[in-house]
Amino acid sequence: xxxxxxxxxxxxxxxxxxxxxxxxxxxxxxxxxxxxxxxxxxxxxxxxxxxxxxxxxxxxxxxxxxxxxxxxxxxxxxxxxxxxxxxxxxxxxxxxxxxxxxxxxxxxxxxxxxxxxxxxxxxxxxxxxxxxxxxxxxxxxxxxxxxxxxxxxxxxxxxxxxxxxxxxxxxxxxxxxxxxxxxxxxxxxxxxxxxxxxxxxxxxxxxxxxxxxxxxxxxxxxxxxxxxxxxxxxxxxxxxxxxxxxxxxxxxxxxxxxxxxxxxxxxxxxxxxxxxxxxxxxxxxxxxxxxxxxxxxxxxxxxxxxxxxxxxxxxxxxxxxxxxxxxxxxxxxxxxxxxxxxxxxxxxxxxxxxxxxxxxxxxxxxxxxxxxxxxxxxxxxxxxxxxxxxxxxxxxxxxx
Length: 400
Ligand code: CTP
Hints:
By secondary structure, this protein is of the alpha/beta class.
């Protein structure tokens, strides 16, 4: 898996820097071309010459020490890397990258790259547990960084606990396993909608529904793990963005309509898991409505059916709708598949136990115009998402 790969190894200043020497050697033995970037602090622990001898490449330590006038070193490293490994990753470097600080060769390269980044943190157990470090790691995780968790054991600072850099053999095998994963949707642009919409009546009140967004977020996250470039257009939810996914936040059905159409042309697969309002108040007040005697009647008007519009404008896209039903789900699902010109529909019997809104599980049937009918019993929304994407991939192949 690693033969011929261009790997940039970023070494930051912790005692575990000595283990990065063994890591370099293992990667080189596997046939990889390893280029090492060291921070100033890392050089307090290990000499650049050690990495130069092990990698048989020059070691990069200074952004302004440009050896080749034809190239800007940090951009060249960022562009040519198949992936970057940051090991050991100190709290300081994690904090800088999570906050967009680029003040040395390593952090400028990390911000400039679009290659996958594997991060192996190593630090004192209390530093590792500090909320600011945890928040920075969470943020990087959401940006798509892949974490190789530190092991537990004896730490150089005298403590026993979590913070020890994972062993070099283990780092190599985790990366090999990750590279080996099926990349079912490599090269595909996937557009997912999720969550509820809010239809305002005045600045403080709105109509909405019970959608939590969990199903759509699980699909977006799994599609990203399958190698797709994912855009998630989301109504208001409490959920963190899945790693590696670009999220666009909207509130109303009308805003969702505009964002979805803006991204439709460049999408290969569109999955509309959002629970979009069918009606909105005909009149919206700029100021908070005052209560009056008697009852209140709010006149509602239809929103645009986004899925219907996408079906009508469809070119190369594989279009998947959702149908939330409470009775005779398959019949209504089949009708919507035809009526909205969809390639597939996911029928959701929301009256069933363990299915539908708010829950972490779901039970659905996937129906497609190729005639595929796959019923998925109650399971986690993550597993449903995986199975749906596999069905979609199979159908795309069949339609090609
Ligand atoms: N949908 C949409 N735009 C709307 C309403 C719904 O794009 N204004 C999409 C949803 O994202 C979902 C699908 O339509 O993928 C089905 O939604 P659902 O509410 O089950 O069905 P409707 O088509 O609205 O039909 P009905 O209300 O008659 O069941």
